[in-house]
Design goal:
CATH superfamily of the largest domain: Periplasmic binding protein-like II
CATH architecture of the largest domain: 3-Layer(aba) Sandwich
Low-confidence stretches: none
Strand content: 15-25%
Distance between the termini: 44 Å
Structural class: alpha/beta
Order of helices and strands: HHHEEHEHHEHEEEEHEHEEEH
Radius of gyration: 22 Å
CATH topology of the largest domain: D-Maltodextrin-Binding Protein, domain 2
Largest sheet: 5 strands, mixed
Shape: flat
Number of helices: 10
Mean pLDDT: 85
Length: 287
């Protein structure tokens, strides 16, 4: 049997579909139409002689063969990207110091950071997770080359918006919201955008509230909500399956979207600037 060579372009689309959970979303991220991405997967399956996805009316999942291929595909793409970076961009070297909110780093950034490190193995990333207030102070003190910070959409702040996402009220279940009396809030310490947003929304409709639990971490907030200690405000994609998004109404009014801005230190190195471009582009594709 003659040896065959896997097409890296097909593998990149395959990995993107697996990560995005669908052909349409993957097409948006790749800049291709849904039909073009579907045709690519048909070509890949014909080359392999077996299906890699099971398609249903409302779901898409990997076959056993697709699961086995996924790890190989990621490794091949990492090697390809690292080889091109080493040959074509040898100047991308050095240390880049990034500050990022802990909750955003936990959910959205791991793949973005890993892709850059794989493509630029001579770059050292130093990532610090902290509250936005501390990140801003550290940035002004010159401790970071780049920071990702939460901000209100209407606030004039230096930097580029790289992420916007709906906020939701969450609780262990609907019984965690009392029918009368103060709403028990689970919040981060001041000054937190989510805390400020929750309090402002409740004050606007005249709904009483109290701070029932304060946590500096996403894990702590989720644990307190899961224990039924109160209600929290989280970005929609940070709401795990064990928590319940609550319907908006008189006691839990609508919330404006959250926004993340990327701020780059003036005079930052070329490597830091390249990393900033990578983060902005990757988050834009995933937004």
């Amino acid at each position: 049997m003659p040896l065959r060579t896997l097409d890296l372009d097909l593998l990149r689309s395959f990995v993107t579909i697996a990560d995005a959970g669908g052909f349409t979303r993957a097409g948006e991220m790749l800049g291709r139409t849904q039909s073009a991405v579907s045709l690519q997967m048909k070509r890949l399956e014909e080359m392999l002689g077996r299906p890699v996805f099971v398609r249903g009316p409302r779901h898409l999942r990997l076959t056993d063969e697709g699961e086995r291929l996924l790890g190989h595909a990621r490794q091949l793409l990492r090697l390809n990207d690292a080889a091109l970076a080493d040959l074509l961009e040898p100047e991308v070297v050095g240390l880049v110091r990034l500050g990022v909110p802990e909750d955003f780093a936990t959910v959205h950034l791991p793949k973005v950071l890993a892709a850059f490190v794989d493509a630029h193995p001579r770059v050292e990333l130093e990532v610090t997770c902290d509250l936005t207030l501390n990140l801003e102070e550290g940035f002004r003190a010159g401790r970071f080359d780049l920071v990702l910070v939460k901000r209100e959409p209407d606030v004039a702040l230096d930097g580029t918006r790289v992420w916007r996402e709906p906020l939701v009220w969450v609780a262990r279940d609907r019984l965690s919201v009392p029918g009368e009396g103060p709403v028990p809030l689970i919040v981060s310490p001041q000054p937190c955008v989510y805390r400020r947003r929750a309090i402002a929304a409740l004050d606007a409709v005249g709904c009483p509230w109290r701070c029932a639990y304060t946590s500096t971490s996403l894990a702590g907030t989720q644990a307190a909500v899961r224990a039924g200690l109160g209600v929290a405000v989280l970005p929609r994609e940070m709401c795990p399956d064990f928590l319940t998004p609550l319907p908006q109404g008189d006691r839990l009014p609508p919330l404006a979207d959250t926004e993340i801005a990327l701020i780059e230190l003036p005079g930052a190195s070329a490597t830091a600037h390249r990393f900033a471009q990578h983060v902005a582009a990757a988050l834009e594709r995933g937004a």
